[in-house]
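Cross-check.
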Amino acid sequence: MKKLLNKFSIGAVGFLTPALAFAANNGDAVSGKGIVYLLGQIHNIISAAIPVLIALAVLAFMWGIVMYLFTGDKEKGKDMMLWGVIALFVMTSVWGLVGILRGTLFGTGDDPYQKVNIPGKYNN
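Predicted model, tokenized:
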């Protein structure tokens, strides 16, 4: 089994190395899309995973409520609810902090002092 695992890991590394080196991008690295494209894809995956993780934390909290109310094991229900609340708090806090940092460092794209262009007689 160990030999099979070693062969598989060597094969996986050999297969993924060109992709990691941007050699399998068909020229995307040459046109300037290599690392930016990769980071964009990672961002898309994380953005899709966040709502799923939050839903799982809510489900864990709800399951804790069900365990607390309808089973005899109230301690497990309390623990499940506690960990569900902790997971929700941590995920939403980190999500908010990342949003604040991103807005601070990169801006939101909304300039509150930008001149509003209203069509009409006051338009210059």
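The mean pLDDT is 75. The first helix runs from residue 2 to 20. Passed to J.P. for a second look.
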